[in-house]
Design brief:
The structure holds two protein chains of two kinds. By secondary structure, chain A is mostly helical. Chain A is built from 15 helices and four strands. The relative contact order of chain A is 0.11. Chain B is 72% helix and 0% strand. Chain B starts with a helix and ends with a helix. The chains are: A mainly alpha, B mainly alpha.
Chain lengths: 360, 318
């Protein structure tokens, strides 16, 4: 539980930082202007800082423009489009949440009748729970909402077992590779580094065989088999990543625990795992996303009723036209939790991806 | 008596290895599941590539993991593939794509990283966290957005930009090199967060003293960039380039979602070519042969990089 509160603390910290950044910048700017008035800062220096900052902001805005554009098309109702038919305008004329309503559909808890039989009599007491309506799509003029909820459920059924299975094999392997010397260790590591770099493509390359095997065994259209496949693809990269995190934990911590008489399993659960929390968080995100985001294999293996979110998203596209507003609303609804996780877990992800342990 | 002690000595010498080797058991489950879903299909793929497998004969007849009623045709698929102009066009286009997209990705990644680590830029950390947001978006979504941007219609964003610049509109996805250009831009955009993360952390490790010393020596910005910054970030950037080159070689979604490697199969990168050959033209045997040739290429490329580029230095030292 302390781990959870630690994470919560860090998130709160990040939120405060993000909220404070504009204020701090304003304070700093005011300070700089004052310094300039007092003649402590030359106009050239002030201009350079302002110019560099403005340039950086412009660059980031340009790079993120496609995302902004898609968000705008998502809230522009039925006329939403990524095409600028009426010329550019940075904000839609008639913003509407209708596309999002279409994505979510009805959010209604149906009424339940609970009956209790009174013992030794014919009597029964019946409770009727009221219908709870969070969102009624037809109120917003949406008659045929999307299959988002079904796809979401499918994605969860794929991603959660992927995560569990992958963590079960990755964590012990990363520990062994980081802390123990055994035969084949170097060969395994070498192989994992090699396979770290041929991730998705290799999966698509072997997709013909994989599909044929799944069909013959009758496992195509099986979400758990797909989860096992995703877990397998996540093994090399994530094992390597977690191993590099664990390499960073000083051996002396373990020795101290051993001297204190801790058995090996307690050294692992009470020293190694808590200290590699950042690595565990990163690996958790990555393995979960393997199943959450994958498109090609899922599209080949699953039939319409078992589509995961990415496949369901792609299925919205007609050959000749894309219902942009609905498409974007769908994609944003499905991606925004992940984007939030990315924003908050960034320091860990950055730390892990910098491959600082790469050069031994 | 002396025998027992000698045996004891020998036994004492062995356990040191054996007890440690128990740790291998912790690695085996991962290896097993990886092998089951990666190596075994590869072997089966090799088998398929020697047969005339199609959905109709492969899935006919009972039995698990057999080749159904497909018959053995030897190297016929390989001969057919290697003598097909489409295959060589696809392979050539793929390598060209690797080269062009790599240059673009490194250029943009390094450029953006330099801007957001510049000490004159205020709120750089904040900007950096915004920058990697695209990584959190599903690839199929971002790629479809870019497909919309490069729409051939007059109102596509790319065409709007062109007409704003005073140029005519381009039928982006219906013209070979225009489509190839669109692939490159999209790949560059998809890969920049990764490049930026790696380059930024490399740049932050460059000692400030080096820059200060160079400044004292009177080096200008560009001189410092070429003589101080670049040499210090060379290895991480090289490493990222190799990874991202491998990703370009295996790019599937961009050509597939844009125009299925069109127009007229001209831009089918190798994986798309094999995929379409198998699943859209029902030629499993030939598709398998193409995929194996692609895997052989990527395998050789990666092996060379890991060996010559000393990517696994950490492994060898350990």
């Amino acid at each position: 539980m302390s781990l959870v509160s630690l994470v919560a603390e860090k998130i709160a910290d990040d939120v405060r930082n993000v909220a404070n950044t504009p204020r701090e910048l304003a304070v700093e700017a005011r300070y700089a202007v004052k310094a300039y008035r007092r003649g402590e800062l030359s106009a050239l220096q002030l201009g350079r800082t302002a110019g560099a900052t403005a340039f950086a902001v412009l660059l980031v805005a340009l790079l993120l423009f496609p995302i902004y554009w898609i968000a705008m098309s998502a809230i522009s109702g039925t006329g939403g489009s990524v095409y600028a038919a009426g010329g550019f305008s940075f904000f839609p004329e008639n913003p509407s949440v209708q596309p999002f309503v279409w994505v979510l559909g009805d959010l209604i808890v149906p009424p339940l009748a609970i009956s209790l039989n009174v013992p030794f009599s014919e009597l029964a007491i019946v409770f009727n729970t009221p219908e709870i309506v969070f969102l009624d799509a037809s109120d917003h003029g949406v008659d045929n909402p999307s299959d988002f909820k079904q796809y979401f459920l499918n994605s969860v059924i794929v991603s959660v077992p992927t995560l569990i299975l992958a963590m079960c094999v990755i964590v012990p392997a990363a520990y062994a590779l980081s802390r123990r010397e055994f035969i084949m260790r170097r060969k395994v590591l070498f192989g994992y580094v090699l396979f770290t770099q041929v991730g998705g493509g290799l999966g698509i390359a072997s997709l013909i065989a994989l599909y044929a095997m799944f069909v013959q065994v009758g496992l195509n259209n099986n979400r758990l088999a797909l989860a096992a496949y995703y877990a397998a693809t996540a093994v090399p990269f994530n094992t390597w990543l977690l191993k590099t995190y664990m390499d960073g934990i000083p051996v002396s911590y373990e020795e101290a625990a051993l001297v204190d008489g801790a058995p090996p399993w307690r050294v692992v659960t009470e020293v190694i795992l808590p200290l590699s929390a950042a690595g565990l968080a990163t690996v958790t995100i990555f393995t979960f996303l393997t199943g959450w985001m994958e498109f090609v294999v899922a599209q080949t293996m699953l039939s319409a009723d078992k589509f995961t979110l990415p496949v369901g998203l792609f299925a919205l596209i007609d050959e000749y036209s894309i219902p942009w507003a609905r498409f974007s609303a769908f994609a944003l609804t499905f991606a925004s939790p992940v984007m939030l996780v990315y924003l908050f877990a960034q320091r860990y992800i950055e730390g892990g991806l910098s491959f600082s342990g790469m050069e031994g | 008596m002396s025998t027992t002690s000698r045996i004891a000595d020998r036994a004492a010498a062995i356990p040191a290895i054996e007890r440690e080797d128990v740790a291998l058991l912790l690695v085996l489950p991962g290896l097993f599941i990886f092998a089951a879903f990666m190596f075994f299909p590869m072997l089966y793929l090799l088998g398929i590539s020697f047969t005339n497998a199609r959905p109709s004969n492969l899935f006919a007849g009972g039995g698990l993991l057999t080749f159904g009623e497909a018959t053995f045709v030897g190297l016929q698929n390989y001969a057919a593939v290697l003598s097909d102009g489409k295959f060589w066009n696809s392979l050539g286009t793929t390598w060209l794509f690797v080269a062009t997209s790599l240059v673009l990705k490194i250029g943009l990644g390094l450029g953006v990283a330099l801007v957001v680590t510049n000490q004159r830029v205020r709120g750089a950390r904040f900007l950096r966290s915004l920058l990697i947001v695209p990584m959190g978006l599903p690839a199929i979504f971002t790629i479809t957005i870019w497909r919309g941007i490069f729409s051939s219609a007059q109102f596509g964003l790319a065409n709007q930009l062109l007409s704003w610049l005073g140029a005519g509109t381009v039928a982006w996805l219906n013209e070979r090199w225009a489509a190839f250009f669109a692939y490159n831009v999209t790949e560059m955009w998809l890969a920049y967060p990764f490049m930026v993360i790696i380059t930024v952390s490399a740049l932050q490790d460059v000692p400030k003293e080096l820059h200060e010393a160079a400044m004292v020596d009177g080096a200008g910005y560009f001189a410092r960039f070429f003589h101080v910054t670049l040499p210090s970030v060379k290895r991480p950037v090289l490493f990222a380039s190799i990874l991202t080159a491998a990703a370009s070689f295996q790019q599937f979604l961009i050509p597939y979602a844009f125009n299925e490697g069109g127009p007229a199969r001209l831009n089918e990168l190798i994986i798309v070519y094999g995929y379409r050959e198998a699943f859209q033209f029902s030629q499993y045997g030939q598709g398998a042969a193409i995929m194996l040739v692609a895997v052989a290429f990527i395998g050789a490329f990666m092996w060379l990089n890991v060996k010559k580029g000393r990517l696994a230095d950490g492994v060898d030292d350990a």
